[in-house]
Write a structure and sequence with these properties.
It is built from seven helices and 15 strands. It is an alpha+beta fold. The protein has a single domain, classed as Phosphatase 2c, domain 1. Strand 3 and strand 4 form a beta hairpin. It catalyses: O-phospho-L-threonyl-[protein] + H2O = L-threonyl-[protein] + phosphate; O-phospho-L-seryl-[protein] + H2O = L-seryl-[protein] + phosphate.
Length: 300
């Protein structure tokens, strides 16, 4: 059996809601893939003046993405730096905490509950792209190739950079850890240089967690939000394969129009975008992935 279905699954799971400063809609679609391996979180007003959204794109199985979806919010709320409003440090520590939990006996047992097939060990991982909004400040923490794009003056202001093994900094770390990059893949296998999970790449005791072949440490980008900022578009890599960032924002804006933005209108914008991106067939290889998108509209 190949990686694709004979017909895509176009039905979507869509959620929306709002908080004091945001309205959001999140939508996911399995598409042409045999299984759905994405997960996501959306928590406006998780504490006063803080909202969190995240996209987790699984690979090698769905279990790590589901584990992170279940635990990320709980762990960041416990984090001392989060309580002290040191959000950049809190995000980094919570990404690393996911791997710590995954490595425990209880974590491994829980992964087995989420797995689609029976096997002794999980080789799954997931990307993580998490947006935290505190008052008028946006932080985006990223590990992997899911993305966040801010619509600023109706133009894309990119909030994350993909972590690919060919990137100079990433490649040098991989080689220092005794690995190699071949055809854009770590040791010829994984086409990401940062991810949560993928624990078999993180077991060399000579190296610290941020020195391993694959690392969970995110980059964090911070920006002050103003009246020129309309919404944040988040998505797994499948959302960004066929249209560039400017075209994606234009598509969302065309749905939103000049109307009063509501939860139902954002749901329509998210679902229409996924329909637009889905490939008519699998011949090109693009537009065939699982797709998850979150649109976070910034109230004025």
């Amino acid at each position: 059996m190949g990686p694709y279905l004979s017909q895509p699954k176009k039905d979507k799971k869509t959620t929306s809601g709002q908080g004091k400063s945001v309205i959001f809609a999140a939508s996911e679609m399995q598409g042409w893939r045999n299984t759905m391996e994405d997960a996501h979180i959306h928590k406006p007003d998780i504490v006063q003046d803080v909202s969190i959204f995240g996209v987790f794109d699984g690979h090698g199985g769905r279990e790590v993405a589901q584990f992170v979806e279940k635990h990320f919010i709980d762990e960041i709320l416990k984090n001392k730096n989060f309580k002290d409003q040191k959000f950049e440090d809190a995000l980094k520590e919570t990404f690393l905490k996911m791997d710590e939990l995954l490595m425990t006996t209880d974590g491994q047992k829980e992964l087995n509950l989420y797995k689609a097939n029976e096997s002794d060990e999980s080789y799954a991982g997931c990307t993580a792209n998490v947006a935290l909004i505190h008052k008028n400040t946006l932080y985006v923490a990223n590990a992997g190739d899911s993305r966040s794009v801010l619509c600023r003056n109706n133009t894309n202001y990119d909030m994350s950079v993909d972590h690919k093994p060919d990137n100079v900094e990433e490649k040098s770390r991989i080689e220092r850890a005794g690995g190699f990059v071949s055809d854009g893949r770590v040791n010829g296998n994984l086409n990401l240089s940062r991810a949560l999970g993928d624990l078999e790449y993180k077991r060399d005791n000579k190296f610290r967690p941020n020195e391993q072949l694959i690392i969970a440490l995110p980059d964090v980008k911070k920006v002050e939000l103003g009246p020129q900022d309309k919404f944040i578009l988040m998505g797994c890599d499948g959302v960004f394969e066929t249209l560039n960032h400017q075209e994606l924002l234009k598509h969302v804006n065309s749905t939103l129009g000049q109307s009063q933005v509501t939860e139902s209108l954002l749901e329509k914008a998210a679902e229409d975008l996924l329909d637009q991106l889905l490939a008519p067939d699998t011949s090109q290889g693009t537009g065939c992935d699982n797709m998850t998108t979150i649109i976070v509209y910034l109230k004025k």
